[in-house]
Every structure is written in structure tokens, then in C-alpha cells.
Write a structure and sequence with these properties.
Layout: E1 7-12, E2 15-20, H1 31-46, E3 52-57, E4 61-63, H2 68-71, H3 76-95, E5 100-104, E6 107-109, H4 111-118, E7 121-125, E8 129-131, H5 145-153, H6 155-164, E9 167-169, H7 170-175, E10 181-183, H8 188-200, H9 204-214, H10 220-233, H11 238-249
Parallel strand pairs: 2-3, 3-5, 4-6, 5-7, 6-8, 7-10
Antiparallel strand pairs: 1-2, 8-9
Helix pairs in contact: 1-3, 3-4, 3-10, 4-5, 5-6
Length: 258
């Protein structure tokens, strides 16, 4: 697959659609894909005909986060850059002047859950699954998950997701406030599109002002910097190396706390 097709961008009736398009890898994100998503968001901001944005994924996943096979080769300083680049994307979503909707069609895991969490609204298909499974690699979320998830579902449930790595099904995600609506798989894009069109037809300046006030994040830069520092430091641990090896070998990790 060419780099140009790693994401697909289109606009229709005031809505910009950004589709992650790496279905053979469950749309796991590369640095290039982050760069392309940020450019698409910038283009949508500059386009006066666009009033709202939908992010979704091709195939059976929204996004499975980072590519674990690539993570295993990163030195701590490279891991910090990887964390910061992901944080740039989620900050751009949260700070975008136009509302952003995640249409979660399947797995939203790790960084994929963080991308969805950064959006203003989440509409999920009944097959959607949310999770922060980084703990199984000897890690924790590095793209804003330690900052934003608790704001949606509360500290206790956020700790449960992050510290156990457990997966949340679509209906439970709606019950805990992670998603606003669960719909049948075949109706997901129609539902997301209709909601996005309704937002796009609203008062753009008021939408922008309201979003900025509701998303006001005092101290966000400091907390995300701390997240990136701690995330990257774990790349020098034996537990991280064991976690990645176990994941790739499809076995249970034997962590030693080193």
C-alpha cells in the first residue's frame, strides 16, 4: 500500500471524512499516518465549506493503536518522540475549532482508544471494542490516555481500563459514558454522517467557542510532557522487552518488575 492511501480523506455536505486505511494492520498508526491526519485536520480547518469532521477506520477496526512490531525496536529517546507525535495529533483534535466525531466501527485499542477519546463525540457500532492494553507490554498509554480518559468515565473506571488492560464492549462503553450512542454496524456511517451534518449546519462561531470552553485543559502541556517522559523511560526496562516478545510470540508475559 502506498503512503498516500494510508488515510483517505473526502468531503460531503459540509462533513470532512478521515478514514484510517491500513486494514491489514487493524489501522495501527505509524508516524506518517499521524502526520497525514494532522494535515487533513489543518485542511479541514482552512476549508470554509467544512463544518464538522468524522474519523473512522477501514475494515474491522477503528484503530488498534501503535504497531507493536515497530515499537519493539525503539530506543527510549525514539519512544519519547513517538509519544509526543501522537500527543500532537490528539491535541490537534481536541483543539480543532470544528467538532470532531469518532465513528468507531470495531477495535479501538491503545492509541486508537486515545484517538477516539480525543474526539468530541463517539458513535460506536455494536461490534466496537475499547481498551488500553498497553500494560500487557509493560507500558501505559502514551498519547494522552492518562490525561483524558478519566474525564470521560471517571478516575476509577479509567484506572481499571489502564491498569488491567481489560476490554470494554460497545454497550458497556455507552453505559459508562465513553460513547454517546451504539448502532447497528451497517448504520454506523449513516448515523455518524447525519449527526455530523447537523453539527455542520449549526452556528460555527458558537460551536467553536463552546468547544474551546468545554475542552479547556489547564496544565495539559505539563501533564502530557510527564506522560511522554514516563512512557519513554519504560522502553529501557526488561519488562517492556519481555512484553513485546510475549505479544509477538502470542504467549503470556513473565514480568519481573525490572
Amino acid at each position: 500500500m502506498s503512503e498516500e492511501s494510508l488515510i483517505l480523506v473526502s468531503s460531503e455536505e459540509g462533513v470532512c471524512w478521515i478514514r484510517l486505511n491500513r486494514p491489514d494492520k487493524l489501522n495501527s498508526m505509524t508516524l506518517k499516518m499521524h502526520e497525514m491526519v494532522r494535515k487533513a485536520l489543518d485542511d479541514a480547518e482552512a476549508d470554509d465549506s467544512v463544518g464538522s469532521i468524522v474519523i473512522t477506520g477501514a475494515g474491522r477496526a477503528f484503530c488498534a493503536g501503535a504497531d507493536v512490531s515497530a515499537l519493539g525496536t525503539l530506543a527510549p529517546e525514539e519512544a519519547k518522540d513517538f509519544s509526543e507525535k501522537g500527543q500532537e495529533t490528539v491535541k490537534k483534535i481536541r483543539g480543532h475549532p470544528k467538532p470532531v466525531i469518532a465513528a468507531v466501527n470495531g477495535y479501538a485499542l491503545g492509541g486508537g482508544c486515545e484517538l477516539a477519546t480525543a474526539c468530541d463525540f463517539r458513535i460506536a457500532s455494536e461490534k466496537a471494542r475499547f481498551g488500553q492494553p498497553e500494560i500487557g507490554l509493560g507500558l501505559f498509554p502514551g498519547w494522552g490516555g492518562t490525561r483524558f480518559l478519566a474525564g470521560l468515565i471517571g478516575p476509577a473506571k479509567a484506572k481499571e481500563m489502564i491498569l488491567t488492560g481489560g476490554m470494554v464492549k460497545a454497550e458497556e462503553a455507552a453505559e459508562i459514558g465513553l460513547v454517546m450512542k451504539v448502532v447497528e454496524v451497517e448504520k454506523l456511517e449513516e448515523e455518524a454522517g447525519n449527526f455530523a451534518k447537523a453539527l455542520a449546519s449549526g452556528a460555527g462561531l458558537a460551536l467553536k467557542a463552546g468547544k474551546m470552553l468545554l475542552n479547556a485543559d489547564d496544565g495539559i502541556d505539563e501533564s502530557l510532557a510527564a506522560e511522554a517522559d514516563s512512557f519513554s523511560a519504560l522502553f529501557s526496562t526488561e519488562d517492556f522487552k519481555e512484553g513485546v516478545a510475549a505479544f509477538l510470540e502470542k504467549r503470556k508475559a513473565a514480568f519481573k518488575g525490572k
